[in-house]
Specification:
By secondary structure, this protein is mostly helical. It has 13 helices and two strands; from the N terminus they run H-H-H-H-H-H-E-E-H-H-H-H-H-H-H. A two-stranded antiparallel ribbon has the order 1-2.
Amino acid sequence: MNFRAWRETHENEIQGFKSLITSSLAFSLMTVCVKKLGGRLPIAELIMARALISLVITRVMISKVGISPWGKNKKLLLTRGLVGTGALFCIFKALNYLSLSTATVIQYTYPTFTALLGFFILREKLKRRIVVSVILGWIGVKLVVQPIIVNGNEINFPLFAIIIALIGAILTALAYVIVRKLSQTEDSIVIVHYFPLVAVPISLPFLINNAVMPRGFEWIWILGIGIFTQLGQLSITKGLSLLPAGHATSINYTQVLFGTLWGAIFFSENLTIYILAGSICVFGATLISLSAKLDLDLSVRLGKASKI
């Protein structure tokens, strides 16, 4: 009985880690699609398109599993949709003014906020290794966020864009803490379903006089935004249902590595010594997080299992 309980918990950890790595990869590819659009289309239009794609996919998934799409805690589900929509507005806006790697690393200050919110709201314990991984990841973020040197000239990023990105990070942290709370009573598909339900009516007023018809490859990038974000949302929601909020989101620092890589490949962004050093710190934070235990050490866990 003890070994079986330990094995089940261990398998949940592994599944949670896999889900979070998948979400990081998916979200990083989503940012590539947004960046590729170059800011020609309004942010609200991208969010509307992303929400409509998500709504179709989610409703099909819900119909297949045969569950109610409305959930139990409707107030908190609506709050999650509202906070998530606000975060996405900020992230997409920041991508129009910042390099992909810079926007990504600023966004990934959110694990720090998530760990703190998880402690204050969910009463999750801040384990030592998680604190160390968050601090190391934060150092990595600070190293990467440096002015860009173009043709020998130092280019500083707009302050308002950095502030918008930070607001997006805070809203992302709050959304993930809410997801962690909702995962105790709600199916992950239902949680994801509430994002488009909120995002569509919020985006619509901004498009009445400002909609722009996509053209050419823009349709592909828009489709990519919808598909990759849907995959990321499903994966992160599943991961957060298996791991504590602070622990889980520290793993998502891997998106910084993905963002840096895609910035170099797709947008010819320079790989400076700061970016390399910051990426190493981020990778180290992920390894520390992977080595940390979920709730208690093995002996305590087995002690609990013996009482089952």
